[in-house]
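The passage that follows is intended for readers who have already worked through the single-chain material. We present the inputs for a multi-component assembly, then the predicted structure in tokenized form, and finally a short commentary. You are encouraged to pause after the input and sketch how you expect the pieces to fit together before reading on.
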Amino acid sequence: MSNLAYDIPLLSIDGSYDVMSSLRGKVSLVTNISSKLGYTPQCSVTWSYARTCKYLWELQQVHDMFKDRGFSVVGIPCNQFGKMEPKENLEIQEFIKEAYPFVTFPVTEKIEVNGKNEHPLYDFLKGTQKRAYSDTTADGTEAAKVGQNLAGQAIARIPHNYEKFLVSREGIMVSRFNWQDGPLDEEPRIMGAGWTITEAIDELLG
Amino acid sequence: MKSKWKATVSNPLGKEIYDMIVDTIDNVTSANIVNEKGSVVLSQLNATEPLILSSLVETPMRTKIVLQFLTDNYQNQQQFNAILSIGEFATMSVECVKYE
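Having made your guess, compare it with the prediction:
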């Protein structure tokens, strides 16, 4: 396993370049995204679209806020949570362009972030520490929602769309934020990472 | 004056039909928009802007919802268009057809 996130190849959504190596020397916020959040028969498509817009728009705000200081958001499409990203790369790219035209941060090829086909980047981001309890047994529980397994340990498994990892200029994973941590939150979430996303980025950029 | 409309909200994920009751009393307008998956009550923000219905509703997003009617005399129309915006991030088109 690589010691640095930027050494792990991950292509852009159109396959034209390696997004991770292009970020060498920058701070990045890496997050698994879905362009159809909450798009299930039970959910209102009005609210589903509004929620997805909100999540992507807030990521874009953070990207714009810090990009001139050497920062980038990286969006990674993933279909492992409620099958909310079922299409192929180029279709996703077209859909994002049409439905969320404000998005300018880099979006990568679709990958898996959990399980046997987990991309090496997520193997790196999650770390390798062993845990007493299986993370999967926490699925659907209150513990999982706050990013913990049933033993109260930080969950390794990605629990949902929009889990976020902050990576330093050197390619080291510095902080992990649960999907409930909003990019523009002004207060750290209780039981969260202890700082807000913008505080963490600002600190890391120096 | 109360009128009933079918409001079809369209966005890139799909379409959704809502029942909309628009009530105007003494120049104050409110709209109650309902379907089987949820509802939203919009009330007039400012009497000088009678065609903009706005509300800060207690949704998980706690954000401002605005329904802007794209016609001045909708009560006399059988059909009109509107724009639904949610916060600064989502804009959807709405087609309203009067049925009562």
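Commentary: The beta strands of chain B are 2-11, 14-25, 28-35, 38-44, 52-56, 64-69, 79-86, 90-98. Chain B has a mean pLDDT of 82. How closely did your sketch match?
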